[in-house]
Please model this.
Amino acid sequence: MQTLSEHGCFGGTQGFYQHDSGVIGLPMKFGVYVPPQAKAGPVPVLYYLAGLTCTEETFAIKAGAQRVAAELGLMLVTPDTSPRGTGIEGADAAWDFGHGAGFYLDATQAPWSAHFRMESWVTQELRALVVANFPADDGRTGIFGHSMGGHGALTLALRHPGRYRSVSAFAPIAAPSRCPWGEKAFTGYLGGNRKDWAAHDATELIASGAKLPPLLIDQGLADKFLAEQLHPHLFEQACAEAGQPLNIRRHEGYDHGYYFIASFVEDHLRHHAATLGA
Model:
């Protein structure tokens, strides 16, 4: 593991790192905020999955989460959103597919399947790396995310029961099989069989009987992607029918960006801390 930079922050350390990923087959970057409480022993770990076009730095720089994480004693881990420098033709051709748009799944279709194995990297390799190199309590792990990363947080928690003890999301792509972003990504990464898509669709997973811990979702009503891409109402309906505990909050005047996330990130951190025992 290579240290790219480290910065004192609210009594703890915000760092950015890189390692040679065996799962991805390329170097991968990630950020870690270590709160001051970690000086006394392992602390709960909260993974944040960012959205389309973002990197491991976006949340750390824009969300303003470290102040509250320092108060609560939460470690924050921010993975990059896809492999980089893959050499795949067309990987930089669009902002919503390829580099910066890994959708937190393991691709099954060539040429993407060679490197786009984000699910395995986040849930297995990166998690083991964090536990080995930072004072992280692996038994107290949560996950949240935004947009594409909200989709990732929901689906990874649903697909790996018990691995994440707390879950939340900001404006997630909640029914990707039924929106242009998801249809494009799933066709490219998983192929044209929609039955394969259902295993990576939070709404379909809830409908099939998969469960999550009590869930918090925030959604801005001025979000330009709400009607066409996000479909929280479909996820809400599936949760109601399945008996999945869900607190979905809709906010007038808030859009899809980080001013929205910064406004409610403290609520999310406290939601996770209450479950993780921070």
Remarks:
- The mean pLDDT is 97.
- The chain is about 35% helix and 25% strand.
- The first helix runs from residue 58 to 62.
